[in-house]
């Protein structure tokens, strides 16, 4: 791909890319392949310049890479319970089940302190959600990049077909405004815009922080 890479988003150089065919999913890994495809998409020419690759959070039930948990502010504006995002995601593959990610590791509790553990990869099957911010470049502001991200995702994602039961994405988009409040593991998002579903992931947008979320639908605990 002929483009100039940011230093925080370049190829990690830790292995060959995965084969086109998705690898077999292990038991209990409903979203690993969807996370891999979505994160690879961010490295494509369409998305690459819009994303801040040094402002990520990788969220599991037991740890958060790149952000601490804060008490939610509540109210009617979009928001979440995360601090500023500080993990780095590097394009490229470290295998079909992990991605190159580094940053401070935090416990999934309010006010938890950063741990000294060195992290270089995130296991896709263990992720509950991924959050990332829009880039703030000299040519375009973060607001313009955020709006472009929302537009791209909206154009790409289509409603799911008829189902025999109501899915999670159906539940969170039941309202006319297509906004939702939901909890998934330690992550709480409030009044965010629902852009649609990508594989097994919900794609959500937070205009206050100019932030996008990829949330494993099977890990959603509560819907507001």
**How would you classify the helix and strand content by structural class?**
alpha+beta
What is the N-to-C order of secondary-structure elements (H for helix, E for strand)? HEEEEEEEEHHEEEEE
Got a strand count?
13
First CA to last CA: what distance? 42 Å
**Average predicted confidence as pLDDT:** 84
> What is the count of DSSP helices, taking H or I runs of 4+ residues?
3
Give the proportion of residues in helices: 10-25%
Please summarize the sheet with the most strands. Answer: 10 strands, antiparallel
Number of structurally distinct domains: 1
* Residue windows where pLDDT falls under 50 for at least 5 positions: 1-5, 21-26
Q: Rg, please?
A: 17 Å
Q: Using the alpha-carbon principal axes, give the shape.
A: globular
Please indicate the percent range of residues in DSSP E strands (runs of 2 or more): 25-35%
Secondary-structure blueprint:
Layout (H helix, E strand, L loop, with lengths): L31 H11 L8 E10 L3 E2 L13 E2 L7 E3 L7 E5 L2 E2 L14 E3 L3 E8 L7 H15 L11 H5 L6 E6 L2 E12 L2 E6 L4 E6 L3 E4 L1
Antiparallel strand pairs: 1-2, 1-8, 2-6, 3-10, 4-5, 5-7, 8-12, 9-10, 9-13, 10-11, 11-12
């Amino acid at each position: 791909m002929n483009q100039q890479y940011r230093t925080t988003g370049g190829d990690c150089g830790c292995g060959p890319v995965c084969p086109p065919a998705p690898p077999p999913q292990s038991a209990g890994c409903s979203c690993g392949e969807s996370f891999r495809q979505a994160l690879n998409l961010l490295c494509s020419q369409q998305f690459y310049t819009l994303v801040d690759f040094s402002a990520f959070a990788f969220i599991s039930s037991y740890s958060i890479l790149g952000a601490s948990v804060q008490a939610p502010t509540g109210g009617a504006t979009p928001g979440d319970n995360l601090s500023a995002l500080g993990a780095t995601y590097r394009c490229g593959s470290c295998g079909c089940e992990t991605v190159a990610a580094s940053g401070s590791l935090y416990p999934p509790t309010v006010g938890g302190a950063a741990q000294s553990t060195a992290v270089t990869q995130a296991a896709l099957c263990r992720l509950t959600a991924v959050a990332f911010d829009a880039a703030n470049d000299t040519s375009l502001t973060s607001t313009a990049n955020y709006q472009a991200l929302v537009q791209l995702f909206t154009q790409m994602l289509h409603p799911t077909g008829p189902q025999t039961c109501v899915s999670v994405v159906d539940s969170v988009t039941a309202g006319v405004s297509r906004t939702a409040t939901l909890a998934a593991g330690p992550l709480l998002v409030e009044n965010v815009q629902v852009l649609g579903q990508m594989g097994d992931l919900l794609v959500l947008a937070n205009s206050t922080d100019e932030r996008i979320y990829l949330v494993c639908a099977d890990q959603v605990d509560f819907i507001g």
